[in-house]
Amino acid sequence: MGKNWFATRWGIIGVGATIGVLAALLQKLGNPGNMGICVACFERDIAGALGLHRAAVVQYIRPEIIGFVLGSLVAAYLFKEYRPRLGSAPVVRFILGVFAMIGALVFLGCPWRAMLRLAGGDGNAILGLAGLAFGIWIGTLFLKSGYNLGRSQKTYASAGWLLPLTMVGFLVLMLIYPQVPDQAQSGVLFYSQKGPGAMHAPLPVSLSLGLLIGFLAQRSRFCTMGALRDLILFGQTHLFGGFITLVIFAFITNLILGQFKPGFVGQPVAHTLHVWNFAGMMLAGLAFALAGGCPGRQLFLAGEGDGDSALFVFGMIVGAGIAHNFGLASSPEGLGPHGVAAVVVGMAVCLFIGFTMRQTVK
């Protein structure tokens, strides 16, 4: 056995299975339907809680996101893998985070939620996952033709702490300004009174499971985008094993808990516009590929000191505010008024980045 069992094939399979089970349990404990874990949706809720958008149904500081970052930080320090670094095309990574979030909110979910929607019986997730794979495939074409955002540089340890400290700040705000029944605002924070933002597992449970997942994901290098990228680029199934077992174990847990409801219509926080389910995740997948990781992986990398990933995370949170303030995000009723334009512009921006940021081999 190597030094890090979690990074072995069976280790990643075990982590994927654990995340699948815990995500389904979080739904049972109060999180929204087919949304036991959704990095994009949860960062969107955080943006709403901070007042970056005023969509009243999606405003809540999600402790799972805080746990992901801090759990990764703990693992990185315990195993001497905390490596503070930054400096690789920061503005590009921020913009990619913005458009990754916009694409995800057109679909209504990140790669993790797409898998969990499938495991819960939502057929619309098939279109989302197909779009995700297609977007990542476009990204692999850029990678093969020399796309590169440059090398990060070692930096001060404190620089790598900035996103984890931000997450600690969010937790402190929740404790100082807890949710007050029948009030949409508590101090500086906004809380949903209805809709997905009002559905959440108890804070100690959400935070504890988030810490556990953050710890395990940092050790295993779990990444949904990386799983598809490696499969497409190299035919490698190392990370893909975790991808598959997440779906299988979430499906089994949903069956046991009575949460599996197959079909396309009437699925929780989902729409049936197949073209835009595909196109939204195609945009998100391309942005993830160009940035080097899915939204979960970006949180885990930020926890181990990667300032470039932290910028991507901040980009996604700001992107959520933009998506809801400008009518780009979808809802169960369908696309936002400017969702189509958002996907077209987002693809144009990502293709511009991919084509112009390639290093020619001499």
From TrEMBL:
Keyword Cell inner membrane: no
InterPro entries assigned: Seleno_YedE, Sulf_transp_TsuA/YedE
Designated name of the protein: YedE-related selenium metabolism membrane protein
NCBIfam families: seleno_YedE
Keyword set, alphabetical order: Membrane, Transmembrane, Transmembrane helix
Residues spanning the membrane: 7-26, 60-79, 91-114, 126-143, 155-177, 197-217, 238-257, 269-290, 310-329, 335-355
Keyword hit for Transmembrane: yes
